[in-house]
Amino acid sequence: MFQPTETSVPVFKLYGETRHWPTPDLLHCESIPERSRLHDWHIRPHRHADLVHVLHIANGRVELELEGTQHTLHGPLVIVVPAMTIHGFRFSQDIQGHIVTLAQPLAEQLGQRLEEQASVLRHADYHLLEQPRKAQRLAALVEQIDAEYRQPAPGRDRMLESQVQALVIELSRQAESHAPSGLRQRDRGHERLASFQALIEAQYRQQPSIERFAEQLGMSSAHLNTLCRRLADRSALQLLHERLLLEAKRQLTYTNMTISQIADSLGFSEPAYFTRFFKRNTGLSPRDFRVRQHAAEAQRQDAPDQAS
């Protein structure tokens, strides 16, 4: 049986990748074949510090490694992989399905809005879709998310938001109708890291000190840093900075706010400090990043016209 250790398991930024989260969106969607084909259909065991995976497998076989257990499964089914869960996949070459990845801030927002129904995202598990109607409904939802994600249109963010909420509700219903598969175990360290990430999501705009975060969690700052480095492979301050950076990218991409306004909204005392922070972490000034994003968006919108 596969028995990974926390020190030997890499922390990926995305499904099979060590590079940064590729978009300012809080959601990423792609087909399973387009990614797994690049890795010879095998995604080795790894974990994510701040991402939640929902894999919908319509057809095909997957050999799943999840928190030290192995399962050979056939579609249709859904696999939920919370943050910090060790997981790996070996897919058959006829696999059909999608992987929807939620950044931790989106998972936290869903938790606030859907309350108990969103708890399905916090439990590592798989759900066999044995009833054809339910399987078809869930498959249609995932297809809609994929189509909306790939073709930006007016109201895209709100549409994706509503579709993802519907997906989580469907998953919750599916989980309620079946007994858990015995995978719902998380240690105390994971729970504390999740609590810290929830505090970051609620307070990152105020940029509290790490000492203040640690106090709220009932531990020392040294303990908090040790926990973050052990489970997330980053310091507590790096996790806070990553959330600030993500929000800065989103505002630069999707709003008309000035650099000064964005800096102020994110708790920076002056725009120059925000600019240095952003460039140190991305290699680009906020202005250059915005220009690049807008150019990329214009290119995507022109692509269908060029093909016709």
From TrEMBL:
The keyword Cytoplasm does not apply. The keyword DNA-binding applies. Pfam families: AraC_binding, HTH_18. PROSITE patterns: HTH_ARAC_FAMILY_2. Keywords: Activator, DNA-binding, Transcription, Transcription regulation. InterPro entries: AraC-bd, Cupin_HpaA-like_N, Homeodomain-like_sf, HTH-like, HTH_AraC, RmlC-like_jellyroll, Tscrpt_reg_AraC-type_HTH. Residues 194-292 form the HTH araC/xylS-type domain. PANTHER family: ARAC-FAMILY TRANSCRIPTIONAL REGULATOR, TRANSCRIPTIONAL REGULATORY PROTEIN. This is Helix-turn-helix domain-containing protein. It comes from Billgrantia antri.
